[in-house]
Here is the input.
Amino acid sequence: MEIYLDQERIALHLRKVRNKAYTTLRDHMPPHHQRMEQIKGWNRDDILEQALRIGSSAYQAARLMMDNCIYIEQNYKACFGMIVLQKKYGSDRLEAPCKRSLQGSRVNYTLIKNILERGLDRHATQISPSVFFDHDNIRGKEHYP
Here is the structure.
């Protein structure tokens, strides 16, 4: 791939055809991205290990956040942010919104942070059973890959 500015080539890169993979060169990253790459725990196993120290729900939340994305690196920052919330709120408080978020359809950093900021982690949650209707138009989760 060639990049031109005013008919002058300013960059030349090999095009990689790997599916679903980043091809960013470290030298091309902004300084703050390079720094994030150096932070301890900036890989899947270390992040999951740190989350497990908080609790089993934090571990499951981090695992779901990383598993539910195309590029796992996108959610490293979200998982790391969730783990950093422990400094402000403590392990017990952080474990509660993680557990609560696992009952919903999607787990993400913003949801967990909002639960903590609003103090919802201190309230018991009661999830009422959903009402399911038997109808030809309703498909179960088996229908979707």
Observations:
- Residues 104 and 115 are 13 Å apart (CA to CA).
- The helical segments are 31-38, 44-54, 56-67, 72-89, 91-101, 109-117.
- The two ends are 35 Å apart (CA to CA).
